[in-house]
Amino acid sequence: MGVQPGQVAVLEIRRPQNNFFDIDLIRDLAGALERLADDGECRAVVLCSEGKHFCAGANFGSGERHSGISREDEHLYDVAIRLFEQPLPIVAAIQGAAIGGGLGLALAADFRVACSEARFSANFARLGFHHGFGLSVTLPMVVGHQRSLELLYTGRRIDGGDALRIGLCDRLVPLVDVRSASMAFADDIAASAPLAVRSIRKTMRGHLADNVRAALVGEKTEQDRLVQTDDWDEGVRATAERRPPTFKGR
Questions:
Q1: Does residue 7 lie in a domain region?
Q2: Per-residue pLDDT at 157
Q3: Residue 201 φ/ψ, nearest 5 degrees
Q4: Is the N end or the C end of the chain the one with fewer CB atoms within 10 Å?
């Protein structure tokens, strides 16, 4: 992960081409955001990724059941909540895939700038899994309840144009302009009085961390239950083998 400080700081995930996440990456992102918030200079953050994709979530294509989202003494969500607790406004620059937990990471940001080539998917049900990363809260907040149900039930992918239409992204620009447009968006935020922006963000989004924290408990409970099922095993195998899954409902 790279960090470029300043009034508009840039946090860049550097795990191309898929930029899969694990506990270590999310911890690094949370720690960097907390340090930027404490240094007094930073007013807004651009969250971006090196390579073809923004973040393709956890690497279940490896065939592993957990793929770095849990350890004996720690779970991804114990760390991820820190992303929602930090006070800086974040603009996510989305190219390529924002899939599964990668969509959850994108929705931890205040805003999303994307391109037509971007792909968004809450593909958990296609893995035989329950969604996580606080999507129970963040997805309906952005696209509404009915749209959320459709995306979560079907796991279908939508492109940047459809994402703009339903409000999943806030700006749609050519692929080559995603990073610069995100910087310009963050510059507009940084031009406002920083104490006022933090105050407004606290009023408008201050409830989010508590709501996400509560949602993560339920999400994790359902995930722990479903990873014991044959459907979950089939979903992981099918992903690793790059074939459609055949679920049996058990």
A1: yes
A2: 96
A3: -60, -40
A4: C
**Considering the domain boundaries, does residue 235 fall inside one?**
no
Domain that holds residue 25: 2-176
CATH number, position 76:
3.90.226.10
Strand partners, 2: 12
The pLDDT value recorded for residue 66 is: 54
Sequence-ordered list of residues with C-beta below 8 angstroms from that of 76, at least 6 positions apart, any chain? 22, 23, 26, 68, 69, 70, 101, 132, 133
Count structural domains, the chain: 1
pLDDT digits (tens, 9 = 90+) for 119-135: 999 999 999 999 999 99
Task: Please say if the pLDDT value at position 87 is more than 60.
Answer: yes
Q: Is 223 inside a domain boundary? A: no
What pLDDT does residue 61 have? 59
Least confident among 46-50, 65-69, 180-184, 211-215: 65-69
Distance set, CA 205 to CA 137, 161, 187, 190, 214 (Å):
12, 26, 20, 18, 15
Phi, psi (degrees; rounded to nearest 5) at 136: -60, -25
* 78: confidence class by pLDDT, cuts 50, 70, 90: very high
Within-domain flag for 127: yes
Sign (positive or negative) of CA dihedral 243, 70, 130, 29 = negative
Q: 0.85 cut: is pTM over it? A: yes
| Dihedral pair phi/psi, residue 67, rounded to 5° | 50, 45
| 76: three-class secondary structure by DSSP | helix
